[in-house]
Amino acid sequence: MDIELQLTVENLLARYVHALDNDRLEEWPQFFVQTGSYRIVTAENYERGLPLPIVYADSRAMLRDRVSALRHANVYEAQRYRHAVSATLVERQDAHTVRAVSHFQVLRIMHTGETAIFASGRYLDRIRLNGDGGAAQFEEKIVVCDSRRFDTLLAIPL
Amino acid sequence: MDIELQLTVENLLARYVHALDNDRLEEWPQFFVQTGSYRIVTAENYERGLPLPIVYADSRAMLRDRVSALRHANVYEAQRYRHAVSATLVERQDAHTVRAVSHFQVLRIMHTGETAIFASGRYLDRIRLNGDGGAAQFEEKIVVCDSRRFDTLLAIPL
Amino acid sequence: MDIELQLTVENLLARYVHALDNDRLEEWPQFFVQTGSYRIVTAENYERGLPLPIVYADSRAMLRDRVSALRHANVYEAQRYRHAVSATLVERQDAHTVRAVSHFQVLRIMHTGETAIFASGRYLDRIRLNGDGGAAQFEEKIVVCDSRRFDTLLAIPL
């Protein structure tokens, strides 16, 4: 077991969910390499091999566009989100790349104070260890959601 | 603090919950030593010292039987489960054995997309470090559930 | 990345939530240095810089008083709580002090068996590494709650 690798991946995931939950969405694209891809899919479609992402981006520019859209839509402002990440399994691919699978869960806290489970599932990540400035960054992040209810899932990045 | 021991235990728990949530139930018995025991109990009974497990198995063969029963019952297929494990405390017993206590939580995602908290509680584990093929395996796993509602708890292993 | 520091902090947090959820409240003050401070605030007030904690204590003696009050009130006994902690980010301040930020979530399990999300948010911790007996202890713990509903939040320490 490569202890440092494990903790490097867990640290990347921790910084990622802190940025999202603290509404620092402008930092979100920087967790990805320049040509990084991001997809949200349902577990059902993922298991059937159906290429029907709910959200899709294959560059940092597209991620930035998405943040702009969210900022202008403004609909999500009254809410808070709280991610939890656990059970991260890491597998080295080569000298510069690892794959990681984690369980996640997101709570949504409404302005009224009500809290509900917003999403749960798995993060399937391919991570470049020596990205910008030597930091670990996502080459590919597939967010596999357990539920197929997606009307509200478009609110924030997962 | 023994860093490698801590991460070895966390890795075992992570692999365990991934197998369950990915519906690889046939692998479940292999997380236990041949004579491994598995119990689900309520916190209430556990604290009172009452030996009344909801589910009980004391060998890999019994665990396999349980998987067969679940596969034939087939009732749980329309649902998904998502485990989270955290706050793992590890204590070495001897050269080959550790005890670990963790908090867990399981979400259930219905076919309709609705998500609910299915179970929560503690894993009380006795782990053999050098099990089959040198891997860590459970000698004893006691799943202490916070709630005493158990009508649905029989669906999948926890 | 300082692996040992990371795991020392995660271990402190794990021991802390185990003590709370196992109803060992008398141990709670000992997770703090003698002059340790503890606050529960809403995210809304915290972000606005409003100094209006829901709960406030600035010494171990005050924490002990709070435990006594809870023990005498006795209202919470029929319930159980289950904390989850994740995404812990650690930053060393000096030779003896670190800052840590974590995500937390607390479930409440009623006597009837019903489970609900009780609280979620962030732990903002300043930790002394060489506290009593050389153990890590909180110098300051700010519990920033996502929700502003607090009627029930006074039940147990978070």
Task: Describe this protein's structure.
Three copies of one chain form a homotrimer. Chain A is of the alpha+beta class. In chain A, 25% of the residues lie in helices and 41% in strands. Chain A has three helices and six strands. Chain A has helices at residues 3-21, 43-48, 60-73, and strands spanning 32-42, 55-57, 80-94, 97-109, 115-128, 137-145. A six-stranded mixed beta sheet of chain A has the order 2-1-6-5-4-3. In chain A, strand 5 (115-128) and strand 6 (137-145) form a beta hairpin. Chain A starts with a helix and ends in a 13-residue tail after the last strand. Chains in contact: A-B, A-C, B-C. The interface between A and B is medium-sized, with 20 and 25 residues.
Mean pLDDT across the residues of chain A is 91
Strand order of the largest sheet of chain A: 2-1-6-5-4-3
Overall 3D shape of chain A? globular
Largest sheet of chain A: 6 strands, mixed
Descriptive labels:
6 strands; 3 helices; homotrimer
Helix-strand blueprint:
The structure is a homotrimer of 158-residue chains.
Chain A: H1 3-21, E1 32-42, H2 43-48, E2 55-57, H3 60-73, E3 80-94, E4 97-109, E5 115-128, E6 137-145
Parallel strand pairs in A: 1-6
Antiparallel strand pairs in A: 1-2, 3-4, 4-5, 5-6
Brief overview:
Three copies of one chain form a homotrimer. The first copy, chain A, is built from three helices and six strands.
